[in-house]
Amino acid sequence: MRINEHYLTLEESYLFSEIAHRVARYTEAHPEADVIRMGIGDVTLPLCPAVVNALEAAGAEQGKKETFHGYGPEQGYDFLRKAVLEYYRERGISLELADIFIGDGAKSDLGNILDLFHEDNTVLIPDPVYPVYRDTNQMAGRRIQYLNATRENGFLPMPDWNQPADLIYLCSPNNPTGAVYTRDQLEEWVRYANQQGAVLLFDAAYEAFVQDPALPRSIFEIDGAKACAMEFCSLSKTAGFTGMRCGYTVIPGELQRGGVPLQALWLRRQTTKFNGVSYPVQRAAAAVFTPEGMAGCRKNLEVYRQNALLISQTLTDMGLWHVGGVNSPYLWMECPNGMSSWEFFDHLLQGPHIVGTPGSGFGKNGEGFFRLTAFGSPESTREAMARLRESC
Ligand code: MLT
């Protein structure tokens, strides 16, 4: 018997677990510290009323013989898949029902999708980036080539046409930097992926934060994308579903490799390894796409946007270089006084008692940078910014 030794190449713990442990150790030793959390991108506002009503109604249905639901379809109930289809259609993107798969969030689908691909594939992953892409490929022992995202290229790396690739990860609006690819830039990525015969894995979990109508919110706004891309989306940040767990993955029927439609492989994978998202959660998710649900979500997103604005203004006043926060809930700042990412983490935790995420946790190019999230309450964000001004 042999274990999967690729696990031994991973960092000892996942970035956000490591941060949680360090914060727990600190608060145990300093129970009086009033710590403000701006680390993991977890929402703080409750679900909007339309979603809560749908959840309660579906919960009640489960308590009656006539309306009880057992196992559901593994790819999701049609009522939710149709709502997602319509959400794309309203943005001018036409998809088929078969293209939509409901899952329990982008993180799971982004990790599990790798079941479909050969271990020998070469993977392109931006650095810095959401650590799930790197860790899940490392678990399978795949060759990873990093795309340098730097201050010079606005943290938006572009393809090197001499670099061969099989799988390409892009996240826009980006986690952690908040940078957003333009239409021209995504067109170039799509051309490159098609030329390479590569598959582009596009993480659109933060699309709802895009305010600038010129910026794309879906890879399928780009011509040619259906032949090379899949899109991963989540209701976690859009609708406050971090604790509810629901998202959707889009795999167009046109996307085939070696004559095999990847949609068919994913369906086969999901029907074998996944029993679907619970009925009440899918009903709640469908309510997100109703006019009342959309209005409720927009109201919450506006609170986070105002927080982001305040953080950005504070950093500007303090002369601290940063990006993001406009079309994204994340702000990406340079650590002051030449501190490393983890030094600044300790400085903020021990001084003003603020928790953020060290940029180096997202990759080597993140060293010297730091991520703050706008997902706190307006009160705690105001308090954190007042403390930050005093401490640096
Ligand atoms: C983050 O903080 O990067 C995200 O909340 C993590 C996630 O969505 O899994």
Task: Provide a short characterization of the protein structure.
With 392 residues, the chain is of the alpha/beta class. The chain has helices spanning 15-29, 49-61, 78-89, 106-112, 131-139, 183-196, 236-239, 262-273, 279-288, 291-317, 341-350, 378-391; strands spanning 36-37, 100-103, 122-127, 143-148, 167-171, 199-203, 229-234, 247-250, 256-257, 260-261, 322-324, 330-334, 354-355, 357-358, 369-373. A seven-stranded mixed sheet has the order 2-8-7-6-5-3-4, with helices on both faces. It has a four-stranded antiparallel sheet with strand order 11-12-15-14.
Write the layout of secondary structure elements.
Blueprint: H1 15-29, E1 36-37, H2 49-61, H3 78-89, E2 100-103, H4 106-112, E3 122-127, H5 131-139, E4 143-148, E5 167-171, H6 183-196, E6 199-203, E7 229-234, H7 236-239, E8 247-250, E9 256-257, E10 260-261, H8 262-273, H9 279-288, H10 291-317, E11 322-324, E12 330-334, H11 341-350, E13 354-355, E14 357-358, E15 369-373, H12 378-391
Parallel strand pairs: 1-13, 3-4, 3-5, 5-6, 6-7
Antiparallel strand pairs: 2-8, 7-8, 9-10, 11-12, 12-15, 14-15
Helix pairs in contact: 2-9, 3-9, 4-5, 10-12
Residues 40-42, 107, 130, 175, 236 line the site of D-malate.
What portion of residues is helical? Answer: 25-40%
Query: What's the main sheet like?
Result: 7 strands, mixed
Task: State the strand order across the main sheet.
Answer: 2-8-7-6-5-3-4
What count of helical segments does DSSP give? Answer: 12
Strand content: 15-25%
Unreliable sequence segments = none
The chain-level mean pLDDT equals 96
Q: End-to-end span in angstroms?
A: 54 Å
Shape: globular
